[in-house]
From TrEMBL:
It comes from Halogranum amylolyticum. It holds the Pfam family DHQS. Residues 3-207 form the 3-dehydroquinate synthase N-terminal domain. It catalyses: 2-amino-2,3,7-trideoxy-D-lyxo-hept-6-ulosonate + NAD(+) + H2O = 3-dehydroquinate + NH4(+) + NADH + H(+). The gene is aroB'. Catalyzes the oxidative deamination and cyclization of 2-amino-3,7-dideoxy-D-threo-hept-6-ulosonic acid (ADH) to yield 3-dehydroquinate (DHQ), which is fed into the canonical shikimic pathway of aromatic amino acid biosynthesis. This is 3-dehydroquinate synthase. Its EC number is 1.4.1.24. HAMAP family: Arch_DHQ_synthase. GO terms for biological process: amino acid biosynthetic process; aromatic amino acid family biosynthetic process. Residues 221-398 form the 3-dehydroquinate synthase C-terminal domain. Coiled coil: none annotated.
Length: 398
């Protein structure tokens, strides 16, 4: 599931200057969507690159599709999605009909011309909860805001709607967003944040990022060989992020077993620290990327994403800024690991240099100091890989 943060910035939150400050804070923090009035679409486009959802104010107006709008020169004034509910039944301005088949909001959602893709519903009571559930059958996005109670309606909607829609729930703080993402384990697909606080916007985006991240079970593998192998093409991965002292990347010659290699955060007598860099190994090796996939180190280029992991298995994403490939003397490091099916051996090539550090059960060590019998931190999964993706088939790597 891909989580999203929507920022509410329509005229109910203040005048244009107030809305502009809120939207700018959202852009700087990395929100996914802003929810605005139709009249603000062009102005938001001028502020920066973000997906725009707009409240549909005239349900009878003809909304151009993307291709027609661009050809017509009106692309700047077109939203990425339109939402019904404001000034209608969804927000309580118009009373709910006793029979939902008579709903103007639902009728607009069901039109074949794709006039609206989302529904906005304020949950005043169980009738509005039922209305949101009905809207979810036709809406790509269902935005719900609990007025008197939040968790119970959200639990009910998560349980009933399933994969029919992207369920986005209203929040005012990052703490509420965290709760929404964790409700019933599945959580909401997104949150609609209503706040002017830049700090709260930033924290909510951080909550989204944390909810998206994997947590890996790292384990110890016993070193069985450390051998000089001669020269090879070595890859340094320089990221666009500063890595912490306990962070690094997972790399290895075998897709099923990847070794933890620290970032160059430590000072040394030889070179200054480079906390954005991981000296990751030879060009043939795998490196773990977000989503549980891998790439060859030789494939990485500026703009790619790699997975950063700490020694507790917490992960995050980092953008590759530069890749440096140079010929360097190498070590072959082999390790033995106990698995459910018995014993397995994994290996990798690492540069013969004191600046390359790995975590061992005795503490952080330079690869030049690693000896047979040491325990190195690794990530192991008993699976084969095809084009970087795990597959259920037998592949021999040696």
């Amino acid at each position: 599931m891909t989580r999203s943060v929507w920022l509410k910035a329509d005229d109910t939150v203040g005048d244009w200057e107030t809305r502009k400050k809120r939207i700018t804070a959202g852009l700087e923090s990395g929100v996914d969507w802003v929810l605005v009035d139709e009249s603000d679409i062009a102005r938001v486009r001028e502020l920066g690159d973000v997906k725009i959802a707009a409240f549909l104010q005239d349900t009878e107006a003809y909304v151009l599709d993307a291709e027609d709008a661009e050809n017509d020169g009106g692309h700047e004034a077109r939203a990425d999605a339109y939402v019904v509910g404001k000034g209608g039944e969804g927000d309580g301005t118009v009373d709910l009909p006793s029979d939902f088949s008579g709903s103007a909001d639902l009728t607009t959602l069901r039109r074949g011309d794709d006039r609206a893709q989302g529904a906005y519903v304020r949950i005043f009571d169980q009738d509005y909860e039922s209305f949101a559930e009905e809207a979810a059958h036709d809406a790509e996005f269902t935005l719900v805001v609990g007025e008197n109670w939040q968790i119970i309606p959200l639990e009910n909607l998560i349980a009933r709607i399933g994969d029919e829609t992207d369920l986005v729930t209203g929040v005012t703080t990052a703490e509420e967003a965290k709760t929404a993402f964790e409700t019933l384990e599945l959580g909401a697909d997104g949150v609609l944040l209503d706040t002017d606080s830049p700090d709260e916007i930033r924290k909510t985006v951080e909550v989204r990022d944390a909810a998206e991240r994997e947590s890996l079970d790292l384990t110890w593998a016993e070193v069985t060989a450390v051998e000089r192998t001669g020269m090879a093409d070595r890859v340094c991965v320089d990221t666009g992020s500063l890595l912490e002292h306990d962070e690094g990347m997972l790399v290895g010659s075998m897709g099923r077993g990847l070794f933890f290699v620290h970032a160059e955060t430590a000072e040394s007598p030889y070179v200054a620290s480079r906390p954005f860099r991981v000296n990751a190994g030879a060009v043939h090796a795998y490196v773990r990327t977000p989503g549980g996939e891998t790439k060859y180190l030789s494939e990485l280029k500026s703009g790619d994403e790699v997975q950063v992991v700490d020694t507790q298995g917490n992960t995050r994403e980092a953008i590759v800024g530069r890749v440096k490939i140079e010929k360097r003397p190498m070590f072959r490091v082999e390790a033995r690991i106990e698995t459910e099916s018995g014993e397995d051996r994994i290996e990798t090539l690492l540069q013969n240099a004191e600046t390359i550090k790995v975590p061992t059960s005795e503490g952080r060590k330079a690869v030049t100091d690693v000896q047979v019998g040491d325990e190195m931190l690794v990530y192991y999964e008993d699976t084969a890989r095809h084009f970087g993706e795990a597959v259920e088939e037998s592949i021999i790597e040696k």
